[in-house]
Amino acid sequence: MRVSVFRKEHFNAAHRLHNPALSAEENAAIFGKCNYANYHGHNYELIVQVTGEINPKTGYVIDMKVLSDLIKREVHQRFDHKNLNLDTDAFVNLIPTAENIVVVIYQLLRPHIDPSHDLKIRLYETERNFVEYPG
Question: Which of 8, 82, 93, 112 is the most buried (most CB within 10 A)?
Answer without folding.
Answer: 82
